[in-house]
């Protein structure tokens, strides 16, 4: 019997989870809903457990493997540039949909009971969030951005120290191999985790909860779909000269898992493997993907805050002008980095509302349906986190285009490099024309 492809296994888990969720909700089976929640929660917890050591060792090894700091700086700059470009496009779509659909018009909600969330975003969060007060605390708390910062510093130091740092680098290489092996034991459980995650979501949230905010929910899903299936393919074709179908074939396992897990960080190991399968060199992927998992959020930090700000303004009867829309765009492009230490769309939304002077209590109106919105937001985030490294590698001439074309025909659970040169051995230098 031929092995069932991993993406098909996840799809089967998705379908079965939806069915079990409907059964649990229709028959009020609390034990089934609780079981699904436990199964899904344990899977995400196992994924997150592997993230700190994976990020640290991968980035340290990658930085040391680079030929020079200037090359790394160029790649980092181009990555940030594409983060900003795609975020600007996404927020423009969000604003356009908000003006077109008027998601807050005619919505009858009790604003008196809405309260501001406990956590709010501020422009100082980036500086306070990126530098840890305690290196051990960054790993204990799972703060990926702080771990990325530490790994970059340690990797750069090891690179400059030279041969004396080789035992330390060798230790990190060994740890990286061990963590990756253990991690893919967990990844193979993704179909079961998907079943639990989507099953719990269906059992917990029904149409009766979504109905009052149906127009807003639809606008968020439509906006994310436009970015996913229109903007990203156009960028792949025009900027990267790449076939979009091959990209989605390679990245789809990560996008699927992001949709059900609602966690960019939890999905990050699968995203990184997907990006490497698409032909992006491992040295670059191991930097760009973890960094993107904390700062590249086209769904949570661009489309959603734009639509939500317009929604809150309309519900509270506040008129927005051109300056306000420009501020929304500014916050979406820059603010995702400012809230990187405080993950979550709610924090990003509070930053947007406070910048515009809108009532923070408006966040409370959307909390009930946030898990439903978070599924498509996170899927969009992760797709963008895979897109940018692929585009940058393609434009730099370091993308393995044969691997890119074959990505959808290989199972993601197969080790990278089984049918081509190992990604870590590829050079991050432009290919001569």
In short:
With 433 residues, this protein is mainly α. The protein is 73% helix and 0% strand. The longest helix has 36 residues, at 30-65.
Verbal overview:
The protein contains 19 helices and no strands. By secondary structure, it is mostly helical. Helix 2 runs parallel beside helix 6 and helix 2 (30-65) packs across helix 13. It has helices spanning 6-26, 30-65, 69-101, 125-130, 135-141, 144-161, 166-187, 190-204, 207-210, 214-238, 244-261, 264-277, 282-295, 299-315, 322-338, 345-356, 362-366, 370-396, 401-406.
Essential attributes:
mainly alpha, globular, 433 residues, 19 helices
Count every helix, treating DSSP H or I runs of 4 or more residues as helices.
Answer: 19
The portion of residues assigned to helices is over 70%
Biggest beta sheet attributes: none
Write down the overall mean pLDDT: 81
Shape verdict: globular
What distance separates the N and C termini?
45 Å
| Total number of beta strands | 0
Spans of at least 5 consecutive residues whose pLDDT stays below 50 are 418-433
Structural class: mainly alpha
Q: Strand-residue fraction?
A: under 5%
How much is the radius of gyration in Å? 21 Å
- Helix and strand pattern: HHHHHHHHHHHHHHHHHHH
């Amino acid at each position: 019997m031929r092995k069932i492809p991993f993406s098909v296994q996840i799809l089967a888990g998705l379908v079965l989870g939806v069915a079990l969720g409907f059964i649990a909700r229709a028959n009020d089976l609390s034990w089934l809903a609780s079981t699904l929640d436990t199964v899904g929660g344990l899977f995400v917890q196992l994924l997150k457990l592997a993230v700190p050591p994976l990020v640290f060792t991968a980035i340290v090894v990658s930085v040391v493997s680079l030929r020079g700091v200037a090359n790394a700086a160029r790649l980092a700059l181009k990555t940030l540039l594409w983060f900003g470009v795609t975020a600007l496009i996404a927020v423009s779509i969000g604003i356009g949909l908000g003006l077109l659909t008027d998601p807050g018009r005619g919505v009858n909600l009790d604003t008196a009971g809405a309260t501001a969330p406990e956590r709010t975003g501020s422009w100082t969060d980036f500086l306070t969030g990126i530098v840890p007060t305690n290196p051990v605390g960054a790993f204990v708390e799972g703060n990926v951005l702080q771990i990325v910062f530490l790994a970059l510093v340690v990797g750069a130091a090891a690179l400059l120290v030279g041969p004396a740092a080789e035992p330390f680098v060798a230790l990190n290489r060994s740890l990286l191999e061990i963590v990756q092996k253990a991690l893919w034991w967990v990844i193979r459980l993704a179909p079961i985790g998907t079943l639990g995650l989507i099953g719990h979501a269906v059992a917990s949230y029904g149409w009766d909860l979504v109905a009052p905010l149906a127009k807003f929910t639809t606008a968020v899903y439509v906006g994310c779909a436009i970015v996913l299936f229109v903007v990203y393919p156009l960028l792949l074709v025009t900027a990267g000269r790449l076939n979009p179908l091959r990209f989605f074939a390679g990245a789809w396992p990560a996008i699927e898992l992001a949709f059900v897990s609602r966690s960019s960080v939890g999905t990050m190991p699968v995203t990184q493997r997907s990006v490497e399968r698409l032909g992006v060199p491992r040295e670059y992927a191991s930097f760009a993907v973890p960094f993107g998992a904390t700062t590249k959020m086209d769904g949570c930090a661009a489309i959603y805050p734009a639509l939500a700000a317009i929604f809150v303004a309309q519900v509270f009867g506040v008129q927005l002008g051109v300056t306000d829309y420009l501020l929304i765009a500014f916050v979406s492009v820059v603010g995702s980095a400012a809230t990187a230490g405080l993950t979550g769309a709610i924090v990003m939304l509070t930053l947007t509302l406070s910048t515009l002077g809108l009532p923070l209590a408006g966040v409370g109106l959307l909390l009930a349906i946030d898990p439903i919105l978070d599924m498509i937001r996170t899927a969009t985030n992760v797709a963008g986190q895979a897109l940018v490294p692929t585009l940058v590698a393609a434009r730099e001439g370091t993308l393995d285009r044969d691997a890119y074309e074959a990505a959808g025909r290989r199972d993601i659970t197969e080790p990278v490099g089984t049918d081509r040169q190992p990604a870590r051995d590829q050079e991050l230098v432009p290919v001569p024309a």
